Each structure stands twice: as C-alpha cells, then as structure tokens.
Amino acid sequence: MESVKPELIVYPDSDGLPMADNTAQFGWIVFIKENLDAMLPDDFVAGDLLWYPVKGRNDIRMAPDVMVVIGRPKGYRGSYQQFNEDDIAPKVVFEIFSPNNTHTEMKEKHKFYEEYGALEYYIYYPVDESRSIDGLDGWARTDPSRPLKPVPDMRNWKSPALGIIFDISGAELNIIRPDGQHFLSHKELEQRSIQAEEKAQEAETKAQEAEAKAQEAEEKAREAEAKAREAEEKAREAEEKAREAEEKAREAEAKATAEHAARLHAEEQAQQERDARDALMKRIQELEQRLSAGE
Q1: Are 171 and 134 in contact (CB under 8 A)?
Q2: pLDDT digit string (tens) for 128-169?
Q3: Rounded Cα distance, 33 and 90, in Å
Q4: Contact 94, 64 (CB under 8 A)
Q5: Are 51 and 109 in contact, with CB atoms under 8 Å apart?
Q6: Distances (CA, A) of 54 to 116, 190, 204
Q7: Is 97 within 8 Å of 106 (Cβ atoms)?
Q8: How far lies 81's CA from each of 11, 46, 92, 119, 177, in Å?
Q9: Concatenated DSSP letters of 99-139
Q10: 3-state class of 166 per DSSP?
Q11: Close Cβ partners of 155 (under 8 Å, ≥ 6 residues apart)
Q12: How far apart are the C-alpha atoms of 237 and 243, rounded to whole Å?
C-alpha cells in the first residue's frame, strides 16, 4: 500500500496587506515599536509581523501593528510562530486606527488577541480630519483564560506588563517609560543611539588606553622583577664570596694560632735546652772545682 506523505504546511511571511494606510499611522507604529524595542533589550518586539498561534493552521493569523513578546529573544523572524517559541504568546499588542479600519475588523482583532493569549490590547486613534483630539482604548487581564476587560480610565494608565504610562492629557498620546523618560521620536532615538555609540567608543578608547598602561606597567614590573632577580643573584654571589672569605679568614686564623703555639712550644723547648745546658755547665764547674780542691 502506497504511503501518503503529510502535506507541508507553509506559514507565509506576508498577508499582502500594507503595513499602514497613511503616514500618520506608519509614524505611530514605528514610534511605539522602536521605543519599546529600545526599552526592552532582552525581549522580542515587532511591528506588522504575522502571528501564527496554532500549529498546522496557517489560516489562523493576525499581524498586530506592534506586539511585545516577553521572554523570547530578539532576532530575525519572517513570522512569529508561537508553537516554535515555547508556546509564548505576545503579552501586549497595539493597533493604530486608520480611516480604512472598520469596527468589524477591530472586533475580529479583539477576539483574536483575547482567544490566543494577549494580556493587554491597546487601540490608539491619532488625530485626523474627523476628530480634533486623539483617543486611546485599552483592555487588560492578568489571566489569559479570562476575558480582556476594558480599562475604565486610560488617563495615566500604567501597563501591568510593561510599566509604561499612557499620558493622554495633551493633543497627542505621550508614553512614559518606567524610568520616567518619555518615548522619543525617531530622530531623538537616533541621536541617543549615536551618543551611546560615541560613549561606547570613548569607553573603548579609555579601556584600550588603560590596557596599554597596564601592559606598560606589567612590562616595567617584569623589568623590575628581572633586575630584582639579578640583584638577588649578585647578592647571593656576594654572600658566597663573603662566606668563602670568612672561611679563609678562619683558616688563616687557625693557621696563625697553630704557628703561634708551635713557636711558643719551640721557644719553650729552646728555653728548656738552655736551662739544661746551664745546669750542666754549672755541674761541670762544680766538679772542676772539687777536683782542683782535691789536688
């Protein structure tokens, strides 16, 4: 019986739709995505990337204007296939409303994000010809098994997952990072990146200079150590010579002592011989006198 090969499922990287309908929408997508990307150095942030939550179902997909996946590393992806990402769903998604969006479309997006695990969902309505002010809607939950609940008041609302604060007191949305800094424009981000690179280069230059000084100090230390070893060797040689000289001095002193003792002994023997000779001469004289007297 001929075996049937399983059908290869392809997950397209594009749905054929434009990223944005107008420059304002595109600008806000880039603005939010780039700032979140800079704020979250260890987490995956993407703009207009297809999200496939179910393995084997390439028809179940959505491309949030911005999505944040906490716990997945940065890096290239043609699409976000959740089943290949430890089944971690994007925690926060953003949609930037445009005149071409319909309420039916936004309801479908809401249903998708609620069903497949997003914990926070925000829709930003930039200023356009039909409105004099912008608007912001939000939904949040702590348990993905429960429905997304509307945020009753978005004024100074703080994202539970990201810690960012939404300031809607002005003419346009202002987003504040957890460290108190405001989200920056692309130009400001670029300038900050340049400044950070300059500081990094400056730090690298200082590090190289410090390393050069350290190497120079190490070289001087090696030279000093070599000189110290040389001086120590000379000191040992001098000490050895001193010991040799001391040994020779002791030998000379011992020889001189022995010679002195021998001389004293010789003098003593010579004195004894003189005394013996004198005694003998005296005895001979006495005998001679006695002989002379006997005559």
Answers
A1: yes
A2: 645 544 689 999 999 999 999 999 999 999 999 999 999 998
A3: 14
A4: yes
A5: no
A6: 9, 37, 46
A7: yes
A8: 8, 13, 16, 18, 28
A9: TT--HHHHHHHHHHHHHTT-SEEEEEE---TT-SS-EEEEE
A10: strand
A11: 166, 167, 168, 169
A12: 10
Task: Look at phi and psi of residue 206 and say left if phi exceeds 0, alpha if psi is from -120 to 50, else beta.
Answer: alpha
CA dist 268 and 273 (Å) reads 9
Q: Residue 3 pLDDT more than 60? A: no
Pairing of strands 165-167, 157-158: antiparallel
The sheet with strand 174-176 has its strands ordered as 157-158, 165-167, 174-176
> Residue 84, SS3?
helix
Global model pTM greater than 0.85:
no
Cα 33 to its chain centre, rounded Å, is: 27
CA dihedral 102, 105, 107, 113 (to 10 degrees): -140
DSSP 182: B
| DSSP β-ladder status, 66-69 and 80-81 | unpaired
Alpha-carbon distance of 240 to 6, in angstroms, equals: 91
**Contact between 111 and 91 (Cβ < 8 Å):** no
